[in-house]
Amino acid sequence: MARAELTVNDLRNLESRIRDKSADIGVVGLGYVGLPLALAFAEAGFNVTGVDADKGRVNKITRGTSYLLDIESARLKKAVTKGRLKATTSQSALRRVDTIIICVPTPLTKTKEPDLTYIVAASNDIARFLRLGHLVILESTTYPGTTREIVLPILESTGLKVGVDYFLTFSPERIDPGSRKFTIKNTPKIVGGMEPTSTKLAALLYRHVSDRVLEVSTPEVAEMDKVFENVFRSVNIALVNELAKLCEKMNINVWEVIRSASTKPFGYMPFYPGPGVGGHCIPLDPYYLASKAREYFFHTRFIELAAEINETMPEYIVEQTVAALNTRSRSLKGSKILILGVAYKKDIEDVRESPALRVIELLIEKKAMVHYHDPYIPDFREGNHRLRSIKLTKKVFSNYDCVVIVTDHSCYDLKSIAKEAKLIFDTRGCTVGINASNIIRLGE
Ligand code: SAJ
To answer: Which of 253, 265, 359, 375 is the most buried (most CB within 10 A)?
Structure first.
């Protein structure tokens, strides 16, 4: 039987359906990347089906209840009520859509190797329903080569040919969780297809939700772009973390140094020292690139050293907490410590890879009595400890030997805390400008 082929007419038809938004979109993975993207396409006028393994998430979306701070429930409810957005746990929904966008996690294994389990699973799910004319786009952050070496072979195992029967592109997500300023619309989108038509179709699609779409020559360029963007942050954060350690030894105020360096109108971009780097990308992406580089007998020494420097920060924070307590003739053992903020960065509700977890683990190991407060994280598990956020009252701060500000959520009234607390160790420079003898800051 003659092999069915995508005709020129079919391709024209697909293009016109993307252009007039009658193409149906599937988004696999409805986390902090997939849900905002699904909603953006739904609000642009597409019919979008989100597929996620988490029944709880699917039910919440169906009810129009957002589980992300960045997404208001009202927006979600409107898209669902209009029938533009629906969610399901069933991958078979992928059969009916024209474009499938993969937004699944890319974690590390315990030995800091890339864990592509979710990408492989999503690719296998898609392969079960892959058909003539499908446009498949990978958005998950990963090492250069993943689209060509991992996703493509799985899809080609169906017998369909990329660029002939279906299309495959990499387009990195560029969500900045918690940012009100940068949105999908005003953040340029990079698209790199396996071949020109894949690139063009993806660009056509993203132009409906992003003001600027840049087409690059291969998926590898787009993949490398993304890891480079995040490694750029990792190495610059490591630089200021190392500077903070040096400034502490030299009794120079690192926050003043950074503030003065920031007056340089060109050739400089401020980064800030802190308790370490958290989140789902910055702590991980250097290891994704380093792992791939080893295949080329290339050791990314600088990139890995920077990642290691960032990883030493929680331990350094605990050392500095010990030193702060010593100024009050207190030892850490038996001291009552209050950690303010455990999310991995300010004003978000995500505790993944947060340096606060390691700080708390170390403090407990050294027999301190540790409580925490975080308005966004009511409780979490640390090893075999389950910790719950305390209730904050004006007077509560004086019950602790030291209050360690690990995540400087905007809700904290630092001036009033400085009046009540016996001792504050500020790891974020958020108390700069509050002159009080009971405040010790990282890097001063
Ligand atoms: N951090 C510092 N000092 C800094 C900046 C950040 O210690 O000067 C820490 C933060 O506290 C946090 C971690 O590093 O723990 C990561 O911070 P981040 O601002 O990079 O935040 P992410 O990981 O949520 O989002 C980043 C995006 N952020 C920005 O570009 C500002 C962007 O790099 C990616 O779109 C996103 O990761 C991603 O998902 O790849």
So the answer is: 359
The rounded Å distance from CA 390 to ligand 1 centre is 27
Nearest ligand 1 atom to the CA of 278 is: 15
Bridge-based pairing of strands 167-170 and 189-193 is antiparallel
CATH number at residue 369: 3.40.50.720
What domain range is 49 assigned to? 8-217
If you take atom 20 of ligand 1, which residue's CA is the nearest one?
Answer: 282
Q: How confident is the model at residue 83 (pLDDT cuts 50, 70, 90)?
A: very high
Question: Which pLDDT value is given to residue 177?
Answer: 85
User: Are 189 and 96 members of one domain?
Assistant: yes
Over residues 329-373, the pLDDT tens digits come to 999 999 999 999 999 999 999 998 999 999 999 999 999 999 999
Q: Pick the catalytic residue from 103, 247, 281, 402.
A: 281
**Ligand 1 centre and the CA of 282: distance in Å?**
6
Same-domain check for residues 151 and 74 = yes
Q: Note whether residue 274 is domain-resident.
A: yes
Give the pLDDT confidence score for residue 7 in this predicted structure.
87
Please tell me the distance between residue 61's alpha carbon and the centre of ligand 1 in angstroms: 27
Asked if 120 and 250 sit in the same domain, the reply is no
Tell me the average pLDDT across 297-301.
98
Are 184 and 321 contained in the same domain? no
Among 176, 226, 280, 430, say which to mutate for ligand 1: greatest number of ligand atoms within 8 Å of CB.
Answer: 176
Return the closest-CA partner of residue 155 out of 164, 104, 223: 164
Tally Cβ neighbours within 10 Å of residue 154.
18
